[in-house]
Amino acid sequence: MNDIIIRNIKSLILPKKSDGPLKGREMDELEIVDQAMIVIKDGVIVYRGEENDEHEASEIIDAGGMIASPALVDPHTHVVHGGSREHEMALKRQGVDYLKILEQGGGILNTVEQTRKATHQELLDKASKNITRMIQHGVLTVESKSGYGLDRENELKQLEVSREISKKFPITMRHTFLGPHAIPKGADGEAFLDEMIELLDEAKDYADFADIFCETGVFTIEQSRRYMEAANEKGMRVKIHADEIDPLGGLELAIEQDAISADHLVAASDAGKSMLQDSGTVAVLLPGTTFYLGKDQYADARGMIEQGGAVSLATDYNPGSCVTDNLQMIMAIASLKLKMTPNEIWNAVTVNAAHAIDAESGTLEAGDRADIVLWEAPNHEYIPYHYGVNHAHTVIAEGRVVYERPGLTL
Ligand SMILES: N=CN[C@@H](CCC(=O)O)C(=O)O
Ligand SMILES: [Zn+2]
């Protein structure tokens, strides 16, 4: 006997299973099965496809004509941090630049102060609220970075909290050590980087990946290369915050260092974009950040896809440059500003996002974890179209309903 059958699914959205990320034209392919069902046993998929009468289960969920998909994957977040930075909103609107705020000791460094002050429990309680909202919005796989500690004690504290979240919630997590996220006030960049390279030996017991913020006034290409080489030598797969504001050649460096992902890429060079096709690096685009910083130039998703690259999307949830837990909002911005097609967007927040963090690919094959979302929407194109609201109605983690949208109490 199976545990659960989900019946009466209007359409089932199925990204294509593949060993690597979907690249170029493949990103526009999506299988849609109409009038579908999903059968689950012991938290894994037994069958998904056209509805039939061949299965029995102890529990039947009537999807009532909703659409279903694998749960979403958010492959770039800074969900563990202290404090908040709403006071920066006014500064930014007055035209003060994001990097200028950092240079003056604000921005990331402000969050560093607040994160250092916070206890483990305070960080856990705060991040739990964000994770709860992410789950309510249909996300069951999340990458989480450190980077607001900038010293041994506080970087490891962030990573410990991150690991505790994965025990507390029914989600899959990947943890990333982002020690070189900024240069602490008064510190020497080179000496600080040496410290962070040394810390990799301990961080690798807590984190799956090593990341660095390569940007003007933060870490140079040469420094980023030094860090990535050290991490690779220690057997850690690398990631990089690259070409977010200035075209430094971070994407080329990511590919040279066989990074699992290169993230941001708003100012990536044409040479870098053309190299994506033959690389194992996923371009993780964060258009919510461009939107939130009030900029006009977005990452060239079309150029990357048309040249055969693999593109993914993430919230980049963080307290300064993109304060949203809602990946559906990012799907809308990807449609409006990155000009990605609905199929590309769905692949970018499922299978390609999973490949960007080496997680299960979320294609609902038999044997896969039953992480599923029932969406109150007539079709998959509707979700990026009707923006800014939550379309997730029921979220199922490993075959268990963990969220159901509450109604009004009138
Ligand atoms: N750009 C660098 N790091 C984060 C922002 C962190 C912050 O502003 O607190 C990002 O990915 O956008
Ligand atoms: Zn980031």
UniProtKB/TrEMBL annotation:
Cofactor(s) the protein needs: Zn(2+); Fe(3+)
Xref: PANTHER family: IMIDAZOLONEPROPIONASE, IMIDAZOLONEPROPIONASE-RELATED
Record carries keyword Hydrolase: yes
First-listed, main subcellular location of the protein, grouped into a coarse class: cytoplasm
Alphabetic keyword roster: Cytoplasm, Histidine metabolism, Hydrolase, Iron, Metal-binding, Zinc
Protein name stated in the entry: Imidazolonepropionase
Pathway entry: Amino-acid degradation; L-histidine degradation into L-glutamate; N-formimidoyl-L-glutamate from L-histidine: step 3/3
Binding site for 4-imidazolone-5-propanoate: 85, 148, 181, 244, 321
Class of the enzyme per the UniProt entry, highest EC level: hydrolase
Species of the source: Salinicoccus roseus
NCBIfam families: hutI
Lineage: Bacteria, Bacillati, Bacillota, Bacilli, Bacillales
Cofactor binding mode and count: Binds 1 zinc or iron ion per subunit.
Positions that bind N-formimidoyl-L-glutamate: 148, 318, 320
GO terms under cellular component: cytoplasm
Biological processes annotated in GO: L-histidine catabolic process to glutamate and formamide; L-histidine catabolic process to glutamate and formate
